[in-house]
Amino acid sequence: xxSALMLAIAVSLATLLGxxxxxxxxxxxxxxxxxxxxKPDLSTLPRLRFLTTTDFPPFNFIDKSGRLSGFHIxxxxxxxxxxxxxxxxxxQALPWAELGDALNKGEGEALxxxxxxxxxxxxxYAFSRPYLQLPARFIMSKAQAVTEPMVDKLSGKRVxxxxxxxxxxxxxxxxxxxxxxxxxxxxxxxxxxxxxKLDAVFGDGMRLSFWLAGTDAAxxxxxxxxxxxxxxxxxTGLAVATKADNAALAAAFxxxxxxxxxKGTFAELYLRYFPVSFY
Length: 279
Hints:
This protein is an alpha/beta fold. It is built from ten helices and 13 strands.
């Protein structure tokens, strides 16, 4: 069971990164460039309004000039441009709790706000394919950082992780020879790594990338091994959601996202908002 999952993780990783794995910084590639998706005709669509929030930086937030900004905002505009309907494209921010009702009432056509695509949410929404997955990563001090196979090289080492998280479950289930040290707060966890009280930290790669790039880390540490893609623990990633009966619009998003990836637009947006890549 253990080796089977690690193999699945490795296969997923190879699919995501493709032949450019050794080039830094890494950009996730979730689309097969050889795949050909039908171009949708949205000429009769009167409007495409994306609904999002303002409290999920760097995905969606209010910038210093008071404008709605972020990765999701730029991605929504890129989708509209690729579909040839930029003049019909609108983006509106609402509180998270109001998103679902607003979509159902016809106040928007799509949600681009990190709605998780689960068996439960698929009863309510139709989703595009994922445009971004959030891998688990190890970070270590630069002086001690090691490479794969991490399972062997971290055996017996003290590895910190947030208590009760999906990352703790992955760590215990598939890196069983490490000494798991749990924390209730990420700042305590990361500080103990910086102070040399831990050999490694395991957690959400995106959040760890922000810490590595910030002043608190002071250049102490770096990613080691991975990234690890484990959908059964960490979810299938971020996708655009629309009404459950609007599969055609979800398919249109698939076409646009595929083209955005193939043309390098997605890579440009990713590196703009995630300069320390979590892949």
